[in-house]
Amino acid sequence: MIKQTTLANSVETDGIGLHTAVPVHVRLVPAPPDTGYVFRRTDLGGFEIPANVESVAHCGYATTLMRTGVMLSTVEHLLAALRGLNVDNVFIEVDNLEIPIMDGSAESFAEIIERAGIVEQPLARRALLVREKVSYEQGNRRISIEPADTYQIDCLIDFTHPMIGVQSLFVELSNGAFGRDIAAARTFGFTNEIEALRKANLIRGGSLDNAIVLTPEGMLNETGLRFRDEFVRHKILDIIGDLALLGMPILGKVVAERSGHIMHAGLMSKLLRVRSAWDIVDM
Predict the structure, then answer these.
(1) From the candidates 19, 234, 261, 264, which is the catalytic residue?
(2) 141 φ, ψ to 5°?
(3) Are 113 and 33 within 8 A, CB to CB?
């Protein structure tokens, strides 16, 4: 039997919001078994927003959760770090309306989780076992989940940009794969979208310190890529973070083509509606 886990100690960090540019303080606190991930807005008296599919409000350029009108944005990278490092239960205290973007990847969050330490708890870890394939499509974008013995992600992206083009990667989330292959991959954007995003009051905190910024011919960042295929690796990071909203590890294979936050939310909602497609099992 695999047991549930939480953090050995509380741990905290600071940063700014990608879209809001506000300073944010985040503190991860150990939580009892069966808590899952629960955000607490400490600026609003500890108001709790559970990290689950029902809380998803919208997911254009980031995944935003909402409960009774209280919002929290850009949760996916922190959730990816928690799920990718097999932490099951944690309270996430945050004093503003957006999780900090850090360097645009999940690496900073993974580092503080490892610093806090991870401890086993008395109850068995539960997993969402996929029994039958469920697919969600929009035009040429599609994402599906199907039975598999472990949590696997097969992702393909396709951008008409000389540094990206078609990239695909298969990852099995076991034996430290998240920390080694996925956590450090940064978010990316295109210079020709910046003006429209700023007009929409987005990416106000965006900079070369927290994103790969692509020009039509290349990139503005002088530091270079962390992986040759960093772009598809970041898409897998987003999938892990968004699907963490299912509330437990997945035993199944996700296949994604040109997907994004909206597609991930659509797949999760459809999966939960098809009650014959999954079971909850002790690992």
Answers:
(1) 261
(2) -105, 135
(3) no
